[in-house]
Every structure is written in C-alpha cells, then in structure tokens.
Amino acid sequence: MIIEDKYLGATNCKEGDTITFVDAGVKGEIEQKDKTKKKVYNFAVDNGEYVLTYTPSNKALKSFVERWGNKTELWIGKSFQVKIVDIEVAGKEMKVVRPVFIDIKA
Description:
Blueprint: E1 18-21, E2 26-31, E3 37-46, E4 51-54, H1 58-68, E5 79-89, E6 92-101
C-alpha cells in the first residue's frame, strides 16, 4: 500500500499543473508550533488524477478573491495553474504553491 499525501502542496504537484476547485470549502483551524490556533480555509481540488485538500495561504486567498469574488460557491469548477515558489518562514526555507490564473474555466 502507498500512503498518499492528501493535501495539495509543492511535494505532490509540479509547476504548470492545472488545479480545479471541486467544492466551496470549509473553515478550519490548524495548530501552530507555538500552540496557537490559526484559522484557515480548506477546499477540495482536483489535479486531474485525484481530489486533494488545498489550504491556500492568505496571499493565495486574496488572489482568488480578486479574480473570482468572495463567494466561494462561485469558485467551483474554476481552475488555476501551479507555480512553485521558495519562501522563508520562521527562518526556514520552504517551497509553496502559488496560483497562476489561466483563461480556460476562469
């Protein structure tokens, strides 16, 4: 058996992959290293092979809202392409997914 990563991230996609929103998302919380809770949004997305959970960063969320509005029900069926970027968080380098908008289904 192969354990698959169920969250969309830089480790299980590649630059240029097309990702499509499958649902309107749900609010959630994640516990940070300092034990505080951070509010997040989790969306089901399809990468063409299987459905993953996508927890976009605040920067990505703002770009979706600018592009498609703040009613996430209207995001269902909308697509973006993956751009992998390097960022530094708390002194640690990491790769993250950034959306690049494509005109099909946009």
